[in-house]
């Protein structure tokens, strides 16, 4: 294993931070895999999974079983990890800008297309290599004038030319689920199976450019532009894995999730050992546009009457919001048939607050599909 340290732009003198990446295997010896944890710095299940993955990858490297390079970033957001307000960690939004750490990654399709247009040919592998080289150049030219910009550039620089990108997050309270690009589903399905994902949510454009989509979207954008002229496969399988809820930080879960990721990489041929047989797919994927939030209409004590992982029908009561002054009880119902896959971990709702999400089969929403 090699450890690399990447200094970030210091916001103020004397506060320099760095990103640390762990490199297993050898570059250009097979596929490149990039895995990062806790880009939302207060989402910690992934950080523990990374701890277990480090041990797996170190052993596999010692045994000479890696066919490619694996880059593991166990703390993807040292900036967010340092943010605390009134004793509560604040890892989702940067204090300075208010920006979500997992949004606003660059869309580089135009720049890359311009750089490679004259050199494309009939061979897909040739075109993939061209696009990756142009991507590395384009990312290197991204601004790093603020600490956040330098963090985004470093993360993209490590990931943009990978065959597999796994971004480890969690929800507030949730069953294990994942987000990935619709065109990537054939490649992502084995991952969903090994992880035992209760649902996979697919989109081609989630809105506001989250990290995984910034890595993968360029491939279907360019493939569409070049259709019938230059072959281009979906050369980056990127997914955001939601490792249940904030509090689901335990060795049994993390060991299981790390083993599932190792099994997926074995299935892909990155690890030279017999692949574990594929477990069943728990549920067919659903459109991200079919994930329907449930909102509180009034403030009050939030009491859930259904658990995450429950199948609910349209009209089913999922929660109550109780006004403690006058005793008014508002019932919150699902507006669709689907899977109650995530709910808030707070137990006091404010008017308008989104308290739960139900995944359904019909794409009912449009526009920006992710929460703040
Ligand atoms: Zn997250």
Structural summary, described in words:
By secondary structure, this protein is an alpha+beta fold. It folds into two domains: 2-284, Zn peptidases (Aminopeptidase); 289-359, RNA polymerase II/Efflux pump adaptor protein, barrel-sandwich hybrid domain (OB fold (Dihydrolipoamide Acetyltransferase, E2P), Beta Barrel). The protein is built from eight helices and 20 strands. The strands form four sheets. It has a nine-stranded mixed sheet with strand order 1-2-4-3-7-11-9-10-12, sandwiched between helices. Strands 8, 13, 15, 18 and 20 form a five-stranded antiparallel sheet that branches. A hairpin with a 6-residue loop joins β16 (317-322) and β17. The longest helix is centred in the N-terminal third of the chain and has 18 residues, at 45-62. The two termini are 37 Å apart. The mean pLDDT is 98. Zinc ion binds next to loops.
């Amino acid at each position: 294993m090699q450890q690399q340290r990447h200094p970030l732009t210091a916001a103020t003198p004397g506060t320099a931070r760095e990103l640390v990446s762990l490199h297993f295997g050898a570059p250009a010896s097979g596929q490149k895999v990039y895995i990062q944890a806790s880009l939302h710095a207060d989402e910690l299940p992934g950080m523990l999974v990374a701890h277990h993955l480090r041990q797996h990858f170190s052993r596999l490297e010692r045994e000479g079983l890696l066919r490619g390079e694996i880059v593991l970033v166990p703390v993807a957001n040292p900036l967010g990890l340092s943010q605390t307000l009134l004793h509560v960690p604040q890892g989702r939004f940067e204090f300075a800008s208010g920006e979500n750490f997992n949004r606003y990654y660059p869309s580089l399709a135009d720049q890359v297309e311009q750089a490679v247009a004259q050199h494309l040919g009939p061979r897909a592998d040739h075109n993939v290599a061209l696009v990756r080289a142009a991507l590395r150049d384009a990312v290197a030219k991204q601004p790093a004038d603020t600490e956040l910009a330098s963090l985004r550039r470093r993360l993209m620089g490590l990931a943009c030319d990978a065959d597999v990108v796994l971004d480890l997050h969690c929800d507030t309270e949730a069953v294990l689920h994942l987000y990935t690009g619709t065109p990537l589903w054939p490649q992502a399905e084995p991952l969903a199976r090994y992880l035992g994902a209760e649902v996979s949510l697919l989109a081609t454009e989630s809105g506001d450019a989250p990290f995984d989509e910034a890595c993968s979207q360029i491939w279907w954008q360019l493939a569409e532009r070049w259709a019938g002229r230059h072959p281009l496969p979906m050369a980056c399988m990127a997914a955001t894995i939601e490792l249940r809820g904030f509090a689901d930080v335990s060795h049994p879960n993390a060991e299981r999730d790390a083993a599932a990721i190792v099994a997926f990489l074995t299935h892909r041929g990155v690890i030279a050992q017999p692949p574990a047989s594929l477990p069943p797919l728990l549920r067919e994927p659903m459109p991200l546009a079919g994930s329907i939030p449930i909102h509180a209409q009034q403030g009050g004590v939030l009491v859930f009457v259904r658990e995450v992982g429950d199948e609910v029908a349209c009209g089913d009561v999922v929660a109550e919001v109780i006004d403690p002054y006058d005793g008014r009880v508002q019932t919150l119902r699902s507006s669709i048939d689907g899977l109650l896959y995530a709910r808030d971990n707070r137990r006091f709702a404010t008017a308008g607050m989104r308290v739960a999400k139900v995944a359904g089969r019909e794409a009912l929403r449009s526009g920006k599909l992710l929460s703040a």
